[in-house]
Structures are given as C-alpha cells and as structure tokens.
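Hi everyone, sorry if this is the wrong subforum. Our group has a chain we'd like a structural model of before ordering constructs, and none of us has done structure prediction before. Sequence below.
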Amino acid sequence: MDDIKRISFTGADGVSELSARLDLPAGRPRAYAIFAHCFTCSKDLNAARRIAGTLAGQGIGVLRFDFTGLGSSEGEFASTNFSSNVADLVAAANFLEANYEAPQLLIGHSLGGAAVLVAAGRIGTVRAVATIGAPADAEHVVKNFDAHLEDIAKCGEADVALAGRRFTIRQQFIEDLQQASVRENLKHMRKALLVLHSPTDNVVGVSNAAEIFEAARHPKSFVSLDGADHLLTREGDAIFAASMIGAWAERYLDPRHKDVDEHAPTAAVLRETHNGKFQNSVRVNQHRLLADEPVRAGGLDSGPSPYDFLAIALGACTSMTLRIYADFKGLDVGTIDVMVDHAKVYADDKGEEGAKAKIDRFERRIGFSRDLDSETRAKLLKIADKCPVHKTLKSSSEIVTDLV
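Answer:
Right subforum, don't worry. Here is the predicted structure as tokens:
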C-alpha cells in the first residue's frame, strides 16, 4: 500500500539536516520525483501533500522536503538564498540516488518552480520538469518585501513579515536573486517541460508562464489551471495538477522502469489518500488509478465510483466476450460499443409505499459499427449474457473478510 516515510538528509551546506517526507506507492515505484515548495512555505503545505499523494497513487515516489531554515529543517533562513535552494535540490537528488533511486522528475511550485528549472541541468538523471505558478525570474519574489528594500540596503538586513511569520532578509539574498538567470538556464536545460499556471494567479501573473514557455526548447507543454489560486488551496486544483503531471510524465520516464514488477500484488490493493473524503489509490497488478465519489456525494470526482467500476467491469467483459466470439466465427461486426448504466430500482418497478426492497439494475446497450442481420444480432445478444462478469453479477457470491 502507499506509504509516507519520515526521513531526513544533509543539506547542501553539509551540516543542516533537512526534514523530508517520501510518498511511496504500493509496490515498486515506476519513477522517483522531487517536489520543491514555494517561497517561505514547507513540504507540508496542503498543495504539496496532495500533489505528492496523488502522484504516489499513480506509481511515482515523491520526495518533498523543507529547504534549509524553513519548516522542520535545520539551518538559518537568513543565511540561505536562491542558489542554496538549488543546491539543496541537488543534495536531495543525491540522497535519493544513494538510498532509493535517482529522480527522473522535478516538480516546483512558485519560487520552487524557478529553482527546479535551474537545478534540472545539474541532475543528470532528470528527464522531465514540471512547474506550477512559477516566476520567469527568481527576482520576482522581491515584490513580497519591496517596501523593505531601502532598509535592507542600508542595514544589510531587515525583519520582514511574510504569510503571518517574520523572516530576516539579508542583502545577499536579494543580490543572489538578481544574479539568478532562470531563462538562461532554460535555454540549455534540454529536458521535457510542463508549465502549469492559473490565468487568475494574482501572485505570479500568467505572463510568467508565457515567458518560461517561450524561453524553453521543445518538448514543452502548457496546462491552464483555470480558476485556481496561487497556492492551489482548493483541493481539486492540486489533484488536477498532479494528475496532469503524472499523465504527461509517463511518456518521458525511462522505459526500463516500466518492466513487469514480479512483486506486484495480484489482488486489488486500495488505500485512502486523504485527498478529499473518499479518494482511494487503487493498484491492480501493474495498473494504478483512483477511486472516488462524485462531488454531489461529497467526493472530488477524481476517479470512478465503486458502482462505476462495476459498470466498467460488466461493459469491458461484455465487449471482450463478443470480440472472442466474433473472431472465432469470422463475423465482421466492426467496432463494438457497450454502454452500462446502474441504478437502484424497486423489485416490482412500482416504487409504491411498502413495495419490495430495491435491487441493483444494470442496463446494458450494445452497438456494432457494421450492419448485421436480425439473426446475427439475436445470437450476439445471447453471447453477451455468457460474459463471466454478467454471470457473477447474476449469481450469488461469497465474500470472506479478515482484519489484518
């Protein structure tokens, strides 16, 4: 089952221990990723936690950590800068390579996005980079404390209130931001890039996404996070972003990591992700997906519902059974379409007060792209009823449950 390990590793300064979480999927991860949080944020920001959890559900192990001097990590924030954040990312990659597996994917949120764009060229195993609400220049973050720039220049440092907390910002921090060239690094990055940005982001404007996209070389892609705020505070926005990253990164992962996992569980394995009320990660053999409930039922609608899965099972089994029969008989039926609806109905279809209990009703509609005579259609209808899942649903099943 998916697992979250509490770990630590030594940061780039060689002294400070950085606090980290490693979100792992059930079975062997098909790849590892590193997540870089936003300016003065932490690995435990809701968006970071939800993105890591969703990607773990898709089979990607995600290391998220607090940069030096932030969150639960050791070190003095005032002595850090953008360059040290980039160096911490390289240290995180070295830790993964030494203890698990070298990362293939970097994900950065806000200033963390700018950091991964610079760090990517220094981590040879990285094949893909995704940014979320990232600035095109690291210096963009200065606007968070521009009212204090004069004091910082005069005194060398100043205490600044950011997100309800006070931080000491030194002149070296500002100078380092000014010297960082994110777009210049983009020209030489030579990694696949996915830029995710909200057109209504009022912290880092969407024009930054356009500048990053323009500076990068192909392959590059853009996904609009319509309606999302900068911190992806709405749960569904973070999960959508993670789902897009996971699907996009699939084509860039090392194909050697897609081999059959001999240790994969043969049973269906499900575990709560703690994203929303009902979302579960699902693993069946080599396949990973999500189960959820629709929004009207209190879920996030991030995956099929349990009854949706039943309808899928019946529809898929029906199509496969018909295909086997058609090929065996040499019938040109064209493309087979199956539609399955599920509902709870009264056993006597009256629905009157005091009527019999409701039963499950699956309505199955089957279509073929070729014109078929009535005799062939009737025969195929009978064959559909021989689908193994159809037989299972029509017969009584035994369910044995143990607590483990």
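For your construct planning: The chain has two domains: 3-258, 306-394. The mean pLDDT is 87.
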